[in-house]
Amino acid sequence: MHLTLFFITFYYITIMLLQWPQDWKRSVFIPIPKKGNAKECSNYHTIALISHASKVMLKILQARLQQYVNCELPDVQVGFRKGREEPEIKLPTPIGSSKEQESSRKTSASLTTPKPLTMWITTNWKILKEIGIPDHLTCLLRNLYAGQEATVRTGHGTTDWFQIGKGVRQGCILPPCLFNLYAEYIIRNARLDEAQGGIKIARRNINNLRYKNDPTLMAESEEELKSFLMKVKEESEKVGLKLNIQKTKSMASGPITSWQIDGETMETVADFIFLGSKITADGDCSHEIKSHLLLGRKAITNLDSILKSRDIALPTKVRLVKARVFPVVMYGCESWIMKKAEC
């Protein structure tokens, strides 16, 4: 009880004084192999270990920020938001392709990927003010990132403490919230929400869909799509976010030419994987459905010994299948366009 009162008082003083204890600004970085050559630093995830007392304070700060974030973000952004699901953003993508096929009009989509958060956030605090975040919360955030220190821990030992010049900590509670605010600022300044272009779905023009750091731009023509992309690129660079052209892809329901952006060629594809689902230019979901059925068959094969066991009750087997097989088969089914033969 006394410890709880101590921390409540301590958190209250931190908020009132807008100052963080130096220990709460310290992080231990753990590099975790991701893929490819282990000798390349880019092939690692760097996770920050943060003190538990600091995380409680960050959770309080996140809750205060979230009430402002929810008021500012549109419904096309579903990443890092409570009550929002991936199918909400996946659904318009195949529907858009299918509708355009039926009407013989061309639709184009571009899946864009920014550089990782740690490379681009230079903590432009003016953005938070323009978005509508109160000054005392902005000041609390600024003081958190000022004077950050870190050490890197590997199997060979731990480095000395060093200062962090810019960037946020992967593994911290706040970066997803900050990223959404930065992304919203970019889209607002690009004036995409005011643009008349896009794909018309349910009597509404939609030209962008956003899930975390995977925004998708959509248009009815190649010229319109390129215009949207260049606007987003220009506004991104103004706040220190560089578009990753190598991971940006374009797709169209008709012929489309390759683009050159800053000397790099943007890849044109006939399909791409978006949030775990395969999106095709013609809106055909047959391949996606078959793929999920095969995954479901593999999942049930893995349970073969359990399902054939006489020592396990039938209700338990049913619950196990519902928990292990159904989610694999039905993932993303809200966005599937079913043909009569598949029903």
From TrEMBL:
EC class (word): transferase
GO MF: RNA-directed DNA polymerase activity
Keywords linked to the UniProt accession: Signal
Signal peptide, first to last residue: 1-18
InterPro entries in the record: DNA/RNA_pol_sf, RT_dom
Region described as Disordered: 88-111
Reverse transcriptase domain boundaries: 13-279
Listed EC numbers: 2.7.7.49
One Pfam family of this chain: RVT_1
Descriptive protein name: RNA-directed DNA polymerase
Species lineage: Eukaryota, Metazoa, Chordata, Craniata, Vertebrata
